[in-house]
Write a structure and sequence with these properties.
The protein is mainly beta and about 600 residues long. The chain has four domains: about 170 residues; about 170 residues; about 100 residues, Sandwich (Immunoglobulin-like), CATH 2.60.40.10; about 80 residues, Sandwich (Immunoglobulin-like). The chain has a 19-stranded parallel β-sheet that branches.
Length: about 600
């Protein structure tokens, strides 16, 4: 009996000790909201917990240790007149109600690690984020490290991002970085790894050391200007990454086959849209594999000893500056000069809407600079095996103007507006949507066309069945002639917020339901603010259209009608209001 008591006591003491380590094995500074102008150096603005370390305010140069890390919790607006330097083992949390405005730089000190910036409740503003150089000695490496996390909405916003050599910067899945100016790599062997969201006006990668300077592992990247990849620098896009470069992509590096460095590498199901041209010069390479996809609105220019290599079901679309059709005066397309090579393997597809290069006549078995084009009438040709599959675009039956998609929060719909400048033999439009990049478009609706017109025609389509999880939504317009021939518009997209799920806000009664007796009642009035209500009923044999009304009586009238139409069994009633959604499972007897 005594032995059991002693054992239990030791376990209890151990648990208390471990809890104590978690609570007190760090120094936590929490803003308390008592200062008129909170600062990091005013002791009265902070509440301090934890037993290790010293100081009653975080200061502008906090530095923790592995045994005593520092946590800074900002729950109120805080401003800094100069720089903020993080010296390792520092976690900076911007919580709900907080923000941090730095009239200077965020400086991550050399060779420091375990630095975390977390914008989980508010934004951070600074003139520059500077990651100082790490160090490599022989086989040992001492990089400068930083993790950026958040809530997927709030951001770290800076004017410039400067990355020196031997740096590892991870933008985690819920992290979001916006650089209003340029991102500059100034050294070798540094990486930005994007799992979340990253936006910058321009990107210049001039490092080396056969490292991969920019990796995407499923996040979203938007670069408003140009991208320049030099030397042995590399951009690697993988996972389900969605990347937009609004300017030109210039690759002038030296490709290394063994390390796969010196250019652009596309893997997995990553997608890239380039608003300008892709220039591959020198010994650089753009390598596509798996199911990756590149859309180039301008031209692809391959010169020197540059290469573009496509493998394993990858897709290239070159619009050549022609929009999505081949104008008789179009000057863009795919161009190869010098010893440049364009190679296709393994059932890849290249759609060239402008000019195409002539294929090279080479001996059987020799590598072709440009493979022979597939003849669709020849059964012996296999796309990506012994020929290149090119599909030229034709002159459009319509000429598209602007396409705009806008999210409407109250109704939770996307309003899709598009304009045609002229129409010829135009039967109708089909609106297609994809919610996993540009991989799998599906038809979601039809809009009748004007037929023949030399004037502007305006069209509107409302997408009212948006994915409840939110994210990027891609659209394209399929224009169909009276003959059945068709072409596509450019792809356009927007990002929509997800819907917050609730439970127990609404009640359906009686449940089980008999006949057409079923009503919806409000259980938790605090979560309903007189928004319009949308309902939909899902039965194994059918799904109703969404019905929207302003009051519960109208909703109940529609529910009564639906219940009378469906057979017995289990069905689900979906209720959507504001940014919330509720599901109720109901049994009809």
């Amino acid at each position: 009996m005594k032995k059991n008591f002693t054992t239990k006591l030791l376990v209890l003491v151990s648990m208390i000790f471990l809890i104590g380590l978690e609570s007190y094995g760090q120094r936590i500074f929490t803003s308390n909201g008592t200062c008129a102008t909170p600062s990091l150096t005013n002791n009265s603005c902070w509440t301090v917990t934890g037993t290790c370390g010293s100081g009653n305010s975080p200061g502008t140069s906090p530095e923790g240790t592995a045994s005593c890390p520092i946590v800074i919790d900002i729950d109120h607006p805080v401003s800094i007149a100069g720089d903020l330097s993080l010296g390792g083992h520092v976690t900076l949390n911007i919580n709900a109600g907080g923000s941090l405005n730095i009239n200077g730089r965020i400086l991550i000190k050399s060779e420091t690690k375990a630095n975390v910036i977390n914008t989980k409740g508010g934004n951070i503003f600074a003139t520059e984020l500077l990651l100082q150089s790490g160090r490599a000695t022989g086989s040992a490496s001492y990089p400068t490290e930083l993790d950026l996390n958040g809530n997927g909405t709030n951001k770290l916003i800076v004017t410039t991002l400067s990355v020196n050599q031997n740096v590892i910067f991870d933008i985690l899945e819920d992290g979001s970085l916006k650089v209003n100016g340029l991102t500059k790599y100034a050294g070798n062997s540094s990486q930005i790894n994007v799992y979340g969201d990253y936006e910058t006006d321009g990107l210049e990668i001039a490092g080396g050391g056969r490292g991969v300077e920019l990796n995407a592992f499923g996040g979203t990247i938007k670069i408003s200007g140009d991208v320049d990849i030099k030397g042995e620098s590399t951009i690697s896009l993988g996972g389900t990454s969605e990347v937009l470069i609004e300017g030109d992509l210039k690759v002038t590096g030296n490709f290394d086959e063994e390390s796969l460095t010196g250019g652009l590498i596309m893997r997995d199901e990553a997608s890239l849209i380039v608003g300008g041209n892709i220039d591959i010069i020198g010994k650089a390479t753009v390598a596509m594999r798996d199911n990756s996809e590149i859309l180039v609105e301008g031209s692809v220019n391959i010169g020197g000893s540059g290469k573009m290599v496509m493998r394993e079901n990858s897709i290239l679309i070159v619009e050549g500056g022609c929009g999505t059709y081949e104008d008789v005066n179009c000057e863009g397309g795919l161009f190869i000069d010098g010893n440049g090579q364009f190679l296709e393997y393994n059932f890849t597809q290249a759609y060239i809407c402008g000019q195409k290069p002539d294929h090279n006549e080479v001996d059987e078995g020799a590598p072709a600079f440009v493979p022979e084009y597939c003849d669709p009438n020849d059964p012996n040709t296999e796309p990506g095996v012994n020929c290149a599959l090119y599909t030229s675009c034709r002159i459009l039956g319509v000429e598209f103007g602007n396409t705009i998609v806008e999210f409407e929060q109250i109704q939770r719909v996307n309003n899709i507006q598009f304009i045609t400048l002229k129409e010829r033999d135009n039967s109708h439009f089909e609106v297609e949507r994809s919610i996993d990049g540009t991989k799998s478009f599906q038809k979601i609706g039809t809009v009748s066309g004007t037929g023949w017109s030399d004037n502007l025609s305006n069209y509107l389509f409302i997408d009212s069945n948006l994915p409840i999880g939110g994210g990027n939504v891609f659209y394209r317009i399929k224009q169909v002639d009276f003959s059945g021939a068709f072409i596509y518009s450019e792809v356009f997209a927007n990002r929509i917020p997800g819907v917050g799920f609730t439970k127990g806000v609404w009640r359906a009664y009686p449940n089980p339901s008999i006949g057409n007796e079923l009503k919806l009642g409000l259980l938790d009035p605090k979560q309903y603010n007189d928004e319009s209500i949308s309902v939909r009923m899902t039965h194994p044999l059918s799904i109703t259209e969404t019905f929207t009304a302003q009051n519960i009586d109208q909703i109940n009238s529609k529910i009564t009608y639906w219940v009378n139409q469906i057979p017995t069994g289990v069905f689900v009633l979906e209720i959507v209001w504001g940014d919330k959604i509720d599901h109720i499972k109901i049994l009809k007897k």
